Amino acid sequence: MVHVEVRTLAFTPPLCPDNLFGHLVATAVPGVEEWHDGAYRRTLTLPGGPGVVSLLPGTDAVVATLTLADPADADEAARLSRRILDLDADPATVDATLRADPVLAALVDEAPGRRVPGSPDADEFAVRAVLGQQVSTAAARTHAGRLVRRHGTPLPDGFAGPGSTLAHLFPGAAALTAVDPDELGMPRTRKRTLLGLVRALADGEVVLDPADVAASRAALGGLPGIGPWTVDSVAMRALGDPDAFLPSDLGIRAAAERLGLPARDRDLVAHAEPWRPYRAYATQYLWAALDHAVNVMPG
């Protein structure tokens, strides 16, 4: 028996939906995420079984339709939906801090209220971050989709509704320890990094806990092949660290050049000191200076 429940998820305006939904959809894992009937939809692994959330953006709230195997999972699904969309952010405080920099002020004034697109599961996002190392968004989606098809748990027939492409839950770390390196179409060093990561997550050697960002960062950064870009990506998108920053990111470097910001990483980090403690939000505004699908509201 499938339980369907609708929740209204309030937020403090303003909320710029473009990069929020644009990023989630541009990087969506096939079979796990989709844009369907004007809403972002994805599968969730919940305590009582599978779930699907459909998040429809509105002017002053997001309408969340929760499709659940267990009605008792409704509060958890709503909580994870808020995390995905960063609905508990304080945009007035964030934007006021960033407006102090004249370069960012113009970007903030153009589209205030940008949020940090989140993830419902830090382990999942860590895997996706490694898959995305030094490859295009399209290639990362392809790699992730292949893992999902081979190792993800299928949804029950008809669970996601008519016309939906949602078919699987993203596989957990324990399931991914069974991955054969030969099935991974990536360089040998990245294969080792990915398999080392999923083993560490499955064994509990690395625990990614939003309640302890510092310890999570340290544990993740101690693994071979995991550098600052991956650690900060996970901290920003999956651990809720509002000050995570990606000075080495190619998009940030391109935006810095376009906006006349320092080109060298260390100089950009120094320039960004006044953006603290909201450098993750500054990152969204910098990315918004580029022509990329992550900045475009899905049609």
UniProtKB/TrEMBL annotation:
CDD domains: ENDO3c. Its EC number is 3.2.2.21. SUPFAM superfamilies: DNA-glycosylase, TATA-box binding protein-like. The keyword DNA repair applies. SMART domains: AlkA_N, ENDO3c. Gene3D superfamilies: DNA-3-methyladenine glycosylase AlkA, N-terminal domain, Helix-hairpin-Helix base-excision DNA repair enzymes (C-terminal), Hypothetical protein, domain 2. It catalyses: Hydrolysis of alkylated DNA, releasing 3-methyladenine, 3-methylguanine, 7-methylguanine and 7-methyladenine. Residues 131-291 form the HhH-GPD domain. Residues 6-121 form the DNA-3-methyladenine glycosylase AlkA N-terminal domain. This is DNA-3-methyladenine glycosylase II. It comes from Actinomycetospora rhizophila.
